[in-house]
Amino acid sequence: MHICKKNSNFALKFDKIPMETIQNFFSGLDIWQIMSAFVFMIAIIDPFGNIPITINMEKRGIKISAWRVCLASLIILMAFLFAGEWILKIFGVKIEYFAIAGGFVIFLMAMEMVLDITIFQNDKLEGEIGNGSAIVPLAFPMYAGPGAFTALVALTAEYSIDNLSLALILCILVLYFVLIGTKWLTKFMGQTSLYIIRKFFGIIVLAIACKLMFGNLAAIF
Predict the structure, then answer these.
(1) Per-residue b or e along 45-83, where b marks 16 or more CB atoms closer than 10 Å to that residue's CB
(2) Cβ proximity of 175 and 38 under 8 Å
(3) Which residue from 29, 64, 13, 14 is spatially nearest to 179, judged by alpha carbons?
(4) Is 209 exposed, middle or buried (0-12, 13-18, 19+ CB in 10 A)?
(5) Over 70: is that where the pLDDT of 11 sits?
(6) How many whole angstroms separate alpha carbon 50 and alpha carbon 66?
(7) What burial class does residue 171 get, using C-beta atoms within 10 Å of its C-beta: 0-12 exposed, 13-18 middle, 19+ buried?
(8) Coil, strand or helix: which one is 122?
(9) How far apart, in Å, do the first and last CA atoms of the chain sit?
């Protein structure tokens, strides 16, 4: 009887541990940070704006595996999210300075979206396409590229890792549904609607880029 009591007490305590861990995890989440980071990252990844590129690839006979592209993008982005700050420490660069530099790069990306100009060239990687998956150039450098890396490291100056991780997962889910429904979205929304969405996200990215630059400048001085 005494052994049974000990075992039952141990079982009760063991059952409580996962619930406490889960509660602590969710209590540390900020829905506004998650949604803000999600909108920002979805604008940088730009799955809607890149629909014409994926359609053009399919017309050229390239089969796009949506789940492979999304999985590769998530792994690359998560790796950089957790290791990005550590990499900066190796080079002795403070996160605030990187956020200012990153904000400037993101500012240029926003100008591309708003003004329909090309500043960053990815033509050299156009021919390096994986068979049946299109991981290159879709997963890298289109979705998980320098712009997304810069944005992630810059956002860690203001957002928690947990919130950024959830925002990334949400972005990849949206990316997956966009990739599998590319033809349907093009027919349903039309090129004009996709163009307007790209401009809208461009303005949002521009505003957040200014916030990153001027906010961190104020923090330094």
Answers:
(1) bbbbbbbebbeebeeeebebbbebbbbbbbebbbebbee
(2) no
(3) 64
(4) buried
(5) no
(6) 14
(7) buried
(8) coil
(9) 68
**81-130 pLDDT, tens per residue?**
888 778 878 888 777 787 788 778 778 878 887 887 777 665 554 444 44
The radius of gyration computed from the CA coordinates of the chain, to the nearest angstrom, equals 21
- Give 176 or 103, the one with higher predicted confidence: 176
Average pLDDT over residues 186-205: 80
Q: Interhelix angle for 51-59 vs 182-220, to 10°?
A: 140
> Residue 72: what pLDDT?
93
The two structure tokens encoding residue 25:
């995890």
Structure tokens at 141: 């450098």
Distance (Å, whole) CA 48 – CA 198: 7
pTM, rounded to two decimals:
0.67
pLDDT of residue 138: 79
113-121 own/partner pairs: CB under 8 Å, 24+ apart: 113/43, 113/46, 113/49, 113/198, 113/199, 113/201, 113/202, 113/205, 114/199, 114/202, 114/203, 114/206, 120/146, 120/147
Buried b (16+ CB within 10 A) or exposed e, 131-168: eebbbbbbbbbbbbbebbbbbbbbbbbbbbeebbbbbb
Question: Is the pLDDT confidence value at 10 over 50?
Answer: no
